[in-house]
Write a structure and sequence with these properties.
alpha+beta; 30 strands; 29% helix; EC 2.1.1.203; transferase
């Protein structure tokens, strides 16, 4: 088995963070394992205790607390999506409704602690409680709270994520103009944090930056897509590559091909995961040092590849959910040593006030799975050289070791703040790697002078010659740059080109520009001249286009210039969907709720301003007649032609009791009624924000029962006669339900067509 294929297998297998995200059933057997009749796993491992006591990773006198914490279930944590304008409304709803209901509550004899904010997470947007996921799922007293969490998670308003998993994105210090690479992204909780940071200003529909989220496992990439889709961003692309050899991409800059270097890189590598013992119980019986020894080489290759693709002045965060220095400080020390000063550890001790952490260690030993210790490479017998490598030991030179400042690494211990175990190191790139030529500096808001460095004759670590496919590429700005670019591209492709997804996307963009689809939509919705029509794409080259998607200008640049390098799993946000009988209307495409917040700033027609009472009616009734809505809403709708409309709610600052965040909904103006096309979980979200409690649903009548409507709901309205509905489209929700691109839960299939 070759090194690359072995590394790919290790990446797929050693991923203990699978259970960190909030999707129900997303983890391994975990707490539910023995509920189905499995014998309970004994939380003891003598070799584990012997190893870490010998390495002294826990402060003196705290070993008992450390082990006690590892044997306790991991507390549930949640994070409120920070970039959405209604984050404050969700926080208000949590604090004043759901958290208050937990006061003085006991479950199975255990007093439920009211959730508390994580002291180190900004703006009280992350909370933790002593409730385990098992208790949340099984306890009748917590059913409402659990339903709230599940529904809001599906809507993308809340992420159920382990506390320590939130740290790496925060330390990346992302700005909206940054180009970001997430090298080992699945299952996606950290990726969603990065997307939120790009959209810090909700008034900018297309930030200059983007996130390219990669994972080696094709199946896990689709889990990553599901997570990212909840945030409805046009600035995310999911790709499927081995992180240790992820291709170097090109972009077009003023007509020249230049190599893409990233301003921020998240390198959350596959690891042995002994910091996850509180949620992955299997680690107790399976733990051995062999896991770390096998993963060290892969982790170092991934980190090296990340450092190669980082822009000068850029920041890379290396993290693991392991406490083993072989996977942590050893990787960082080896990377720093072979960078020859190009990289340095950043001092981030004051960037997350309130977070308790231990400094990185500077001395450690290597132990085999049978308990044999080695203090340095010279003592390792030749028979062990395939298992133990020189990069696993700390540097011998005391001055070189001191200059690395390994104490700037962060070690998170479980007993300090009731979390999992974690390791984080923040690296800043000062110059290009020694085996590379020149590269662009970090792109800031102000123009910076690009400088070049000379090619070093030294190759990568261990004296091996540099592989051309892994060389960092220069910035092509001088004479002969085009020739250099083509030469570098030929070296990297090396005659092994593949027909990637990007090639198809390029054809889609090209074909879309010459048809009149966009022109019809532009006229029907009175799109602004600034509408970026060139950023639209489809996923089919033949026949009618069923959906139109939109990406940011920067991601479009990446797509068009890397047609044979990338295996793209997903990109683009759905903005329009074709109606089944769309030719009967002035525009065959209706608006899609998934992309409405991106598209809305460009729409100047077919906008109906609605009141909060109108929103309640539209979200709880399937096809409310005009007479049920306010006179102001009716006067706006009566002169509009049938077809897709935008329903906009603007908060009234003079009425503090009303919902204080704007809402934009997709709707359909029929002959006698208006309906909304909003996924069920999103409907429930808006209703909760307006103070309504959802009690149930009458599917036949298309009615959602709330605490306001339960007492007053009478017989359903008479159906509009069939002749009145003749010629109107079938339910687009049913059409979407059969589409493979839909990730949010749509309304039940079979709802009546709009009237």
């Amino acid at each position: 088995m070759g090194r690359r294929s072995r590394g790919r297998r290790l990446q797929q297998q050693q991923r203990p963070e699978d259970a960190e995200d909030g999707a129900e059933g997303g983890g391994k057997r975990g707490e539910a394992g023995w509920e189905g009749g499995y014998p309970e796993i004994v939380k003891e491992n003598k070799l584990f205790e012997h190893y870490y006591q010998e390495l002294k990773i826990v402060p003196e006198g705290e070993w008992g607390q450390f082990m006690d914490a590892l044997r306790e279930p991991l507390p549930a944590t949640l994070r409120i999506t920070g970039y959405k304008s209604h984050a404050k409304e969700i926080l208000h709803c949590l604090k004043n409704k759901y958290f208050k209901e937990l006061e003085d509550l006991e479950v199975d004899g255990q007093k439920v602690e009211v959730p508390q904010p994580l002291s180190w997470y900004p703006e009280e947007l992350a909370w933790h409680t002593n409730l385990s996921r098992k208790i949340l799922r099984k306890s009748p007293q917590l059913e409402k709270f659990h339903q709230f969490l599940v529904s809001e998670t599906e809507s993308g308003n809340i992420s159920r994520q382990e506390a320590v998993s939130m740290i790496p994105p925060l330390l990346l210090n992302v700005r909206p103009h940054h180009k970001i690479l997430d090298m080992c992204a699945a299952p996606g909780s950290k990726t969603t944090q990065l997307i939120e940071m790009l959209h810090a200003d909700m008034n900018v529909p297309f930030p200059e930056g983007f996130v390219i989220a990669n994972d080696v496992d094709n199946k896990r990439c689709y889990l990553l897509v599901h997570q990212a889709k909840r945030l409805s961003s046009p600035c995310i692309m999911v790709v499927n590559h081995d992180a240790s050899s992820i291709p170097r991409l090109q972009i077009d800059v003023d007509g020249r091909k230049e190599i893409l270097f990233y301003d921020r890189i998240l390198c959350d590598v596959p690891c042995s995961g002994d910091g996850t013992m509180r949620k992955n119980i299997d680690v107790w019986k399976k733990w051995t040092t062999l896991n770390s020894l096998q993963l060290h080489g892969l982790q170092l290759r991934i980190a090296t590849r990340g450092a190669e693709q980082l822009a000068e002045g850029g920041r890379m965060v290396y993290s693991t959910c392991s406490l083993n220095p072989i996977e942590d400080e050893a990787v960082i020390a080896s990377l720093l040593e072979k960078s020859e000063g190009a990289l340095e550890l950043a001092d981030v001790s004051d960037e997350l006030p309130g977070l308790k952490w231990m400094p990185g260690i500077t001395q450690w030993k290597v132990m085999t799975k049978d308990g044999q210790w080695f203090t340095d490479w010279d003592t390792v017998p030749h028979s062990r050289h395939t298992q133990i490598r020189p990069t696993m030991f700390p540097p011998k030179d005391p001055e070189k070791l001191q200059a690395m400042h390994l104490e700037r690494c962060l070690r998170i211990l479980p007993h300090h703040q009731n979390t999992g175990g974690f390791f984080v190191a923040v690296l800043v790139k000062k110059s290009s790697m020694p085996w590379n030529k020149r590269q662009p500096k970090l792109q800031g808001k102000s123009a910076e002078t690009r400088e070049s460095t000379q090619l070093s004759p030294a190759g990568p670590a261990e004296g091996k010659p540099a592989d051309p496919s892994k060389l960092e590429s220069p910035s092509f700005t001088g004479t002969g740059d085009t020739e250099i670019a083509h030469a570098a591209e030929d070296l990297e492709n090396n005659g092994n080109k593949k027909d990637g997804v990007c090639g198809t996307v390029y054809q889609m963009l090209k074909s879309l520009c010459v048809n009149n689809t966009v022109s019809v939509c532009r006229k029907f919705y009175a799109l602004a001249p600034s509408f970026p029509r060139m950023n639209l794409l489809t996923r089919t080259t033949e026949g009618k286009k069923r959906q139109l998607y939109m990406v940011s200008k920067e991601l479009r640049n990446v797509l068009l210039n890397n047609s044979e390098k990338m295996k793209v799993i997903n990109t683009g946000i759905k903005v329009w969907c074709r109606n089944n009988s769309g030719e009967e209307f002035d525009c065959a495409f209706r608006l899609a709720q998934e992309g409405i917040y991106t598209l809305y700033p460009f729409i100047n027609s077919r906008i109906i301003t609605v009141s909060m009472e109108d929103v309640k009616i539209l979200l709880t009734q399937e096809n409310p007649f005009f007479r049920k809505l306010s006179s102001e809403t009716y006067s706006q709708a009566k002169d509009l032609a049938k077809g897709s409309v935008v329903l906009k709610y603007e908060p009234d600052s003079a009425n503090p009791d009303a919902l204080q965040c704007p809402i934009v909904l997709c709707g359909w103006r029929g002959k006698a009624s208006i309906r909304t096309f909003v996924p069920k979980n999103e409907r429930l979200h808006y209703l909760r924000m307006m103070g309504l409690e959802v009690l149930g649903e009458k599917k036949k009548e298309g009615v959602i029962l709330t605490n306001e409507s339960a007492a007053s709901t009478g017989q359903p309205e008479n159906e509009v006669p069939e002749e009145q509905r003749a010629g109107e489209p079938n339910s687009p929700d049913a059409e979407e339900a059969n589409s493979p691109d839909v990730t949010a839960a749509c309304d039940p299939a079979g709802v009546p067509p709009p009237r």
